[in-house]
């Protein structure tokens, strides 16, 4: 947090805990804790993410963004339930993440959440699954496929109106930059704060923190006393988006607000039709005979094929380009 000595809250004049040059705004603890949920609440309304009466599933990884999101949605009075997916990642990563989620829920009077343990439910952990792939599927890609499937399944079974994830502005801007540099029209066409449901088994996905800087979320977690896992997943080390985040931070340093402007201008240009991406082709979908989720390849979806024949698992580039 960059706080210069003597910096004062714009609302009350008390010492500021955060200075946000991107908004030309410095705030004290009390006013920052009001400002963050208000801004997230506006984002939810602006993009029509969900309504006050909707049941929302918050995907929580144990990291600062998703725990802060859970905290904020709860403070805003939404009917939220947490979902933690135990991927069985070693080195203490999954075990510690789960502890953070449990501790968070307990310290807030027992917030409701569910845990899906991948090994217990399907037979092996994500790293074990990747090891079994003879075609060298990347752990992160398999993990993304499994997480998406589980989130959709739980949302469908539990009758949730939407799944909220903790993607913040830095995540969105980094993916946008990567997709732009590669002119990934398909991914650019789909990148949005809300992904509507296109099938009864596919939940609506929303990103209420998409206009919040990562630094703002770190400050919020600190001030709210949220105890989160600092470590990144060991498989994400060296991920390309980390490099794009660094580039964007350099830009932001020179020109405060650049990240937000980059992302918002993209959304505006899409909305106004200034830039257009090819409509996705209508592809023939059928329901997977095992799980009911839609598939374009045969009668089993990619997730179910994965468990029937893990050695045949392949990895696509999708994870790198989708936030
Ligand atoms: P990541 O892809 O790790 O940056 O995570 C993006 C978002 O996905 C997080 O903010 C969470 O909302 C969700 N997520 C990631 N990992 C998990 C997990 N193990 N269980 C539940 N949700 C998760
Ligand atoms: Fe899935 Fe890292 S969180 S491989
Ligand atoms: Zn103040
Ligand atoms: Zn299936």
Outline the structure in words.
- The protein has 323 residues and is an alpha/beta fold.
- The protein folds into two domains: 30-280, Rossmann fold (3-Layer(aba) Sandwich), CATH 3.40.50.620; 283-323, no CATH class.
- Helix content is 46%, strand content 11%.
- It is built from 13 helices and ten strands.
- It has helices spanning 29-46, 64-75, 93-107, 118-122, 126-132, 139-158, 169-181, 185-190, 214-224, 240-254, 258-272, 302-308, 318-321; strands at residues 18-20, 25-27, 55-59, 79-86, 113-117, 162-164, 194-195, 205-206, 286-287, 294-295.
- The strands form three sheets. The chain has a six-stranded mixed sheet, with helices on both faces. The chain has a two-stranded antiparallel ribbon with strand order 1-2.
- Helix 5 crosses helix 6 (139-158) and helix 7 (169-181) crosses helix 11 (258-272).
- The longest helix is centred in the middle third of the chain and has 20 residues, at 139-158.
- The two termini are 25 Å apart.
- The mean pLDDT is 92.
């Amino acid at each position: 947090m960059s706080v210069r000595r003597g910096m004062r809250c714009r609302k009350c004049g008390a010492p500021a805990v955060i200075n946000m040059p991107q908004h030309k705004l410095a705030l004290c603890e009390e006013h920052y804790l009001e400002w963050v949920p208000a801004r997230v609440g506006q984002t939810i309304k602006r993009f029509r993410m969900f309504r006050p009466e909707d049941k929302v599933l918050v995907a929580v990884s144990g990291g600062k963004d998703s725990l802060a999101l859970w905290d904020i949605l709860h403070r805003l009075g939404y009917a939220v339930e947490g979902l933690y997916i135990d991927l069985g990642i070693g080195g203490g990563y999954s075990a510690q993440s789960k502890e953070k989620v449990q501790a968070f829920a307990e310290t807030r009077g027992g917030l409701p959440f569910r845990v899906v343990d991948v090994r217990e439910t399907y037979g092996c952990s994500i790293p074990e699954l990747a090891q079994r792939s003879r075609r060298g599927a990347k752990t992160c890609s398999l993990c993304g496929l499994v997480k998406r499937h589980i989130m959709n399944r739980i949302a469908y079974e539990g009758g949730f109106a939407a799944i909220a994830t903790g993607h913040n502005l830095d995540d969105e801007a980094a993916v946008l930059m990567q997709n732009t540099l590669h002119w990934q029209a398909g991914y650019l066409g789909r990148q949005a704060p809300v992904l509507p449901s296109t099938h009864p088994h596919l939940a609506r996905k929303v990103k209420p923190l998409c206009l919040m800087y990562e630094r703002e979320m770190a400050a919020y977690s600190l001030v709210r006393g949220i105890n989160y896992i600092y470590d990144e997943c060991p498989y994400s080390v060296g991920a390309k988006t980390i490099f794009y985040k660094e580039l964007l931070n350099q830009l932001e340093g020179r020109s405060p607000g650049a990240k937000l402007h980059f992302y918002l201008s993209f959304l505006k240009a899409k909305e106004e039709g200034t830039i257009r991406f090819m409509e996705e082709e209508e592809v023939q979908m059928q329901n997977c005979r095992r799980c009911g989720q839609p598939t374009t390849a045969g009668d089993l979806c990619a997730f179910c094929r994965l468990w029937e024949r893990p050695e045949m698992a392949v990895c696509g580039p999708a994870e790198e380009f989708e936030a």
